[in-house]
Design goal:
alpha+beta, 4-stranded antiparallel sheet, about 10% helix, binds zinc ion
Length: about 290
């Protein structure tokens, strides 16, 4: 690559030299210039850029001739001035950024191996929510996975009844995805049975004390069958107990945020919500 550049600029210089004689013909104010100007001193134009040579310009030495000639000045090209831009996680509303380098001179972006990034959007991590895939929330209009960081209703999808489903006294019509009751069971006298509270373990969720109708399986908080409640609201959290120290779940690397969490003391392999942490290494961030 470098070799090719040198050859190219050599060819360019030769062409420029040849053009010195050509440019003079017929248009010089000094008659001596008709066969070529006399360019002696070239002054540097201080215009070198990143990996691009600057130029130098000479003015014809002969009297009454103001012709100028500009050519490339070899060896003046400058290296990029790399500034590291470190990883920043996105939030619900703000974009994040991948670790990369910015040249403070030409403003081009480079990846961690200092290769030019053509599309500047490549380093952007677009803002987006953090949906809890294991959990449903719903409104009468539809269901969604709640964001673990904000309360915004996000990606509301209409409820969907099973095909051809119709309410009977034995069952209402429930959304196939989230379990929302689209149509209640046909009117009947609920036959209530008391279900006592149970405790959660690591693998099974306990339930709060409640009543269940042995006809339609609807659940109620009390024996009057006026306090209908969904099973999801009766489930108690799993019985995990968290360690006090963090364990790294995903190692952070120069361009990537890592995550850590507190493991369950019972050895079930579950852990708390992931807490992000950044790669911090002076050697890396100073190596620009
Ligand atoms: Zn001249
Ligand atoms: Zn540059
Ligand atoms: Zn959110
Ligand atoms: Zn639904
Ligand atoms: Zn019932
Ligand atoms: Zn556990």
């Amino acid at each position: 690559m470098k070799k090719l550049k040198v050859i190219l600029s050599l060819v360019l210089s030769i062409m420029m030299l040849l053009s010195i004689t050509a440019c003079g013909k017929g248009n010089g104010a000094n008659p001596d210039c008709k066969d070529g100007h006399l360019f002696v001193y070239y002054y540097y134009n201080e215009d070198a850029g990143c990996e691009k040579n600057g130029t130098e310009t000479a003015t014809c030495k002969r009297a009454n001739c103001n012709a100028t000639h500009t050519r490339e000045r070899e060896g003046t090209m400058l290296p990029h001035r790399y500034v590291i831009v470190t990883y920043k996680a996105h939030t619900c509303t703000q974009d994040g950024v991948l670790t990369h380098y910015l040249c403070s001179r030409c403003l081009n972006l480079f990846d961690q191996e200092k290769n030019l990034i053509e599309d500047k959007n490549e380093v952007i991590i677009p803002a987006s929510h953090f949906p809890n895939e294991a959990k449903w929330e719903w409104t009468a209009e539809g269901h969604y996975h709640p964001c673990t960081k904000c309360n915004e209703v996000n990606d509301l999808t209409p409820h969907q009844a099973p095909e051809g489903a119709q309410a009977t006294i034995f069952s209402g019509v429930y959304c196939v995805d989230c379990g929302y009751e689209i149509t209640p069971a046909l009117p009947h006298t609920h036959q209530l049975k008391f279900v006592p509270e149970t405790n959660s373990t690591c693998t099974e969720q306990g339930v709060k004390a409640h009543y269940i109708c042995t006809v339609c399986n609807s659940t109620f908080l009390d024996a009057t069958s006026s306090s209908k409640v969904y099973m999801k609201d009766l489930l108690k959290p799993f019985g995990h107990e968290w360690e006090s120290e963090y364990t790294v779940i995903e190692e952070a690397s120069p361009g990537k945020q890592g995550t850590k969490a507190k493991m369950c003391k019972h050895g079930c392999g579950e852990y708390t919500d992931l807490t992000p942490y950044l790669y911090e290494d002076k050697d890396y961030t100073d190596n620009v």
